[in-house]
Design brief:
The structure is a homodimer.
Chain A (H helix, E strand, L loop, with lengths): L1 E5 L4 H12 L4 E5 L7 H6 L7 E4 L5 E2 L1 H11 L14 H35 L11 H24 L10 H15 L9 H11 L5 H5 L17
Parallel strand pairs in A: 1-2
Antiparallel strand pairs in A: 1-3, 3-4
Helix pairs in contact in A: 1-6, 4-5, 4-6, 5-7
Amino acid sequence: MLTLFHHPLSPQSRYVRLILGEYGVAVRLVEERYWERREEFLLLNPAGELPVLVAEGQPAVPGADIIAEYLEETLPAAEVPDRLMPSSAAERVEVRRLTRWFNDKFLAEVSGPLVLERVLKRYMTREQGGGSPDTEALRAGRHNIRYHLAYIGWLARTRDWLAGEHLSLADLAAAAHLSTMDYLGEVPWNDDDAAKQWYARVKSRPSFRPLLTETLGGLPPAEHYADLDF
Amino acid sequence: MLTLFHHPLSPQSRYVRLILGEYGVAVRLVEERYWERREEFLLLNPAGELPVLVAEGQPAVPGADIIAEYLEETLPAAEVPDRLMPSSAAERVEVRRLTRWFNDKFLAEVSGPLVLERVLKRYMTREQGGGSPDTEALRAGRHNIRYHLAYIGWLARTRDWLAGEHLSLADLAAAAHLSTMDYLGEVPWNDDDAAKQWYARVKSRPSFRPLLTETLGGLPPAEHYADLDF
């Protein structure tokens, strides 16, 4: 049995949960307040970041991209025939490029600051960085999401899925980050219809359901969040 | 023939040059002032970052980690028998963990800010972010490098190479970032003898030679930079 150390509104944690969901792999979830820098957690991942995947008796696998590569390399092909990572070198480059785009760039410019300011700061002590949201950071994140949504829309108009002809890790990474923003009501869906249609397709997959039914005490999701016809 | 868009003091560009050097793969280097956001370069890598590898007639491969995975997957095993990525799943996790440690964390906390403040700002216009160095950023980078050097020293005392028994991508990533700091005379070598001995071993490899003989006009390297017995 696998264990995933995660946080419900960590976009990279959601990304790994979507991969496991698509591959039909059961996982035990442990919510980790990583900003508390718990000693046992730092032993699993010295970088102190989420998510971390642990298979019994194996060394911990830290970080969303490394977990994704690990699952691609270790899940038997016979059990999960529809892979989220294509087999040709050129397609793999494009899937990895877009996955990193969301897990690094979207995280730095949009989901990282917005989740920190609107969610995590509520749980942090002042020493951990808690307090009231930095309005300048909120403003920047809300400005940046428009460019990213337009890029997703452009990709969705040009291709069947974000990285090409098939659903891939790139779609799950993009949807994972967007889903945290959608929980907070921060996605200007009316800006881009192609992006919205693409997200509706990913959102209606069974792997997405667990994310849509979870809510955080004291911080309910935006009204349309779980609505497949938003 | 491969082409690598790089910058001489970009740590991630150096990382890819070391991999190509270890594998004996010839490459044509093109220096890219990526902060100028040249349109043709943005077509190769919409993220606008270095390095980018281009094989004739193939789509561009953007980003150090993606280039490393691409080379591992496409270079024929017969031509390069000593791989920098081990074959077991657990060892691959450790190599990727440390590679990301340096390419993400060391970059964010040390080499990114120090190269920006001390080198790139000289070449940037004020609109591009140029100007005099931010002393607070310099101070933070110089503070952080001590923790990273201690971590490298701890790894080097515990293992033959940073990720285990063999030279791997993790050593090249760490050495690439450290080499830019060493060029600028920013490594407190006396802090950690094990880290210094490990670096001396990597530095004396033939793949390192091209990095040690290049200098930037107007910004000579620290005196001991090219010295194998520093």
